[in-house]
Amino acid sequence: MKKGMYAVLSLVVVMLLSAFFLPERAGEEPAEKKFFSALPSMFYMEKGEKEEAEDEGIRINVYHLKEDKIRSVPLEDYVAGVVAAEMPMSYQSEALSAQAVAARSYALFKSKYHSGEGCLSHPGADVCSSPGCCQGYCPPDDQQYKNAIKAAKDTENLIVTFRNHPIRALYHACSGGHTENAENVYSEALAYLRGVPSPGEEAEYENFETRKSMDITELMEAFSDEEDVVFLTDYPISEQMEILSLSDTGRVTEMRVGLTRMSGTQFRRLTGIASSNFHMEFDDENACVTFFLKGAGHGVGLSQAGAQAMALKGEDFYDILTHYYTGASVTALKDVVLKMPVDT
User: Fold this and answer.
1) pTM as predicted
2) What count of other Cβ atoms lies within 10 Å of the Cβ of residue 98?
């Protein structure tokens, strides 16, 4: 035991002598600074760890797809990055602010601060940077993203709540004129995700109405992983696909593909079409189908094109958010009880 103590004391003495009595070379740090930087790193936190420990604010664990890595990002920096990735920077400031509050709400709903499930595709992350899974995200470190940074700053610490809890603040590009009830797209009904009119989108969204054609070869490729779906090349394509049911807003809720039934949401995902609000026209001679589509995205929650239309009419982000999230409120984070995570 004594030998160990003597060894440590000897090491400290050597380091003191080296720091204060050896001559400094040109360009070297002063002796005092050189001494403290020479102490074993076990006595000090790494710079990043120290900054994180001193930062008492909320941080979001974000899985970056390009880096294949989880990073801890301050909440407000994350929000600015989502706005930069998810909404055109040319949109009105109130529309961008609405997007910022929605992004912040969604992140907290998914996060450890709300006992959220996190990103199921990437264990350990609250969210990932894939817009198809969680939310798009790109660090807004370029001048072109100044409006995203401003939107996050202008709405700092504001979230959308329902019964004083962060909501699953879903959003999409364009509803096609009317948003959809959550249960017609996802597995559960949520009181704040009800379909509402979304006027003015056709003037603000370039691809409000689109079309996409697919021949039978492309369809076979799209459904290649679905073992129950079989297309026949020698049978009329018009007999191989059928819309079985529509929601009140005109979206396809159930399809027949071959002999298999599936939801309109699954059909949209597999075919890659922009919306489940569509009708079909068949060309049996060329074994081809054309989808005539309205809107873009799943249609649930905030419509970004609708938010832009409302902002152009002079409505603010409070008006936008409470219109698209039925019965919800815009609340300061200090008024919401969040769970502080315990590191394990």
Assistant:
1) 0.81
2) 37
- Higher-confidence residue of 140 and 172: namely 172
| Tens-place pLDDT, residues 98-132 | 999 999 999 999 999 888 899 999 999 999 999 99
CA atoms lying within 13 Å on the CB side of residue 334:
1
Q: List Cβ<8 Å contacts ≥24 apart for 118-123.
A: 118/61, 119/63, 122/63, 122/70
DSSP bridge partners of 60: 73
**Is the CB of residue 95 less than 8 Å from the CB of residue 87?**
yes
DSSP symbols for 289-316: EEEEEESBB--BSEEHHHHHHHHHTT--
Return the HEC string of 80-104. HHHHHHHCCCCCCHHHHHHHHHHHH
Distances (CA, A) of 167 to 9, 24, 256, 325: 58, 60, 33, 9
What gap in Å lies between CA 304 and CA 295, rounded to an integer?
A: 11
Bridge partner list, 252: 246
User: Measured between alpha carbons, how far is 159 from 107 in angstroms, rounded to an integer?
Assistant: 10
Compute the radius of gyration of the chain from its Cα atoms. 27
Asked whether 152 and 100 are in contact (CB, 8 A), the reply is yes
Confidence check: pLDDT of 91 > 90: yes
DSSP letter (8 states) at residue 168: -
Q: Three-state SS string across 213-268, please?
A: EEEHHHHHHHCCCCCCCCCCCCCCHHHCEEEEEECCCCCEEEEEECCEEEEHHHHH
Beta-bridge mates of residue 242: 256
Read off φ and ψ for residue 136, nearest 5 degrees: -65, 155
Per-residue b or e along 206-241, where b marks 16 or more CB atoms closer than 10 Å to that residue's CB:
eebebeeebebeebeebbeeeeebebeeeeebeebb
pLDDT digits (tens, 9 = 90+) for 205-259: 999 999 999 999 999 999 999 999 999 999 999 999 999 999 999 999 999 999 9
288: left (phi over 0), alpha (psi -120 to 50) or beta: beta
pLDDT digits (tens, 9 = 90+) for 155-179: 999 999 999 999 999 999 999 999 9
Q: Which helix (H) or strand (E) holds 49?
A: helix 47-54
